[in-house]
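Internal ticket #5521
Category: modeling
Description: The requester needs a full-assembly model to guide mutagenesis choices. All entity lines are attached below as received. Residue total reported by intake: 436.
Assigned to: D.W.
Attached entities:
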Amino acid sequence: MKQICVIGVGYVGLVTGACFADLGNHVVALDVNEKRIENLNKGIMPIYEPGLDELVKRNMKAGRLQFTTSYKEALKDVEYAFIAVGTPSGAHGEADLQYVAAAATSIAENMSGPLIIINKSTVPIGTGDWVADVVKGAQPKPIPFSVVSCPEFLREGSAIGDFMSPHRTVIGSLDRDAANQVAHLHLPLRAPIVITDLRTAEMIKYASNAFLATKISFMNEMADLCEQVGADVKEVAAGMGYDARIGRHFLDAGLGWGGSCFPKDVQALAHMAKKKGLEPRILDTVMDVNYERRKTAVSQTQKMVGGSLKGKTVGVLGLAFKPNTDDMRDAPSIDIVKELAEAGAKVRGYDPVAMDVARSILSDIEFFDDPYKLAEGCDALMVVTEWNEFKQLDLEKIKSLLKSPVIYDGRNIYDPALMKEMGFNYRSIGRGFNGK
Ligand code: NAD
C-alpha cells in the first residue's frame, strides 16, 4: 500500500485516484472546487463516466479513497503527488499552465516530507523542469523532491478500463530512482513501461494525440474522395485496418474529432512548433480538415432540405463530443448548433447524458428528453454523436414523426441501402457516390 495524493478531481484525476485506491493504495484526492469535493463526499459524481460511481463509492467505503480541499491534509505523509489539473488552450492556442503553476506552488507550500511529484496533465515540453523550479522557489524550507512525467492516455467513456489496462505506461525523469519508484507503482497494470527523460515523455503524449487526430482527418479526406469515386469509406477503413502497420483504430470518417484533448493538444503542439521557428504544416492541415467537417455537415443538410434552413426545424441527435461521456468541450455539436441557428433554423437537441452540461453552454436550441419527441415535426435530423441508443431507433416511427424524412448521418451509423429502401432522404459520409 502506497500513500498517494491526486490533485485535480476531473476526468483524469478522479479516475486515477479511484483506480489507484482500487489497487489497494491509500489515496487522498484534492480539488480547489469546494462544491465538487462536497458532492463527492456525499457520493455525487461530478462527471459521467461508466463504472466510476460504483468504483468511487466502493473505495470510499473501504477507507482507501478520501476527498479534500486542504493541501495540508492531502500531502500529509504521502510519497507520491499526481498533478491532474486542466491545461486548456490559451488565447493563442498555447497550453494555459496557470492551474499547473497553482498546484505546484500549493504542493511546495504544504509538503511535509520528501515527495515524488508526478505530472499527469498534458503539458508543453519543458514543463516538468519548470515545475521543479516553481516548487523549489515556493518551498518555505528545502525538502527533497523529484518531478516525474507520467502522461495519461485514457479515453473518456472507457476511462477505467483504459487506466487499468493501458497500452503502455510512459515515465519520464532524469531521476532514475524516482522513475523506478513510479514504475513500481504502475506494475499491477501489467503494461509495457517506457522509462525516458522528462521532455521525451511530455513529447510522447503530444505526438500520440496529434497522430491519432491526423488519422481521423486523413480518413475524412479519404471519405470525400470516396464520395466522388463511388467507394465506401467504412469498408475502406475495415480493409486498411487489417494491416497491422495501420491498425483499425481512429479510422472512422465522420464529423471529426472534438473534446477536451485533441483540439487543444494539436493546437498547443502547433504553437510550440511555431515558437521554435518551425512550420507545422501537417498539424495545421489536420486542424483545418477537422473543423471544415462541421461547416460541411450544415451546408449539406441545408441542401437536403431544399437549399435554405430558414424557418426549418432541425433535430440534433447527440451533443457530447463522443458517446459514453457528458463532456461537451469542443464538441462538434457546439459549432453545428451555432451554424444551424445562424442559417435561420430552429434547432432541437437531445443527448442521453450530456443534457445538463449542454444546457449550460448551448443557446439557440430547444432541448428534448427523448429522440422521438425531438423528431416530431422536424424537417431534418442530424446524427452528431454515435450513441448506441441511436443505432437501433425505430426508424419507421421516426419517419412517421418527421415532417420530411431527411437524415444527415454524421457518424455513419445507418445502412444507406436500408435507409433508401425505407424512403429516407439519407446522407452519410464517404459511402458511395455523394455519400448517398
Ligand atoms: P478537468 O477539467 O476535468 O479536471 C481538472 C480539475 O482540476 C478540476 O476539477 C479543477 O477544479 C481542478 N483544479 C484546477 N486547479 C486546481 C488546483 N490548483 N488545485 C487542485 N485542483 C485544481 O480536466 P481533465 O479532463 O481531467 O484533464 C486534466 C489533464 O489531463 C489535462 O491536462 C488533460 O489534457 C489531460 N488528459 C485528459 C484526458 C481526458 O480524456 N479528459 C485524457 C488524457 C489526458
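Resolution: model delivered.
Comment from assignee: The two ends are 58 Å apart (CA to CA).
Ticket closed.
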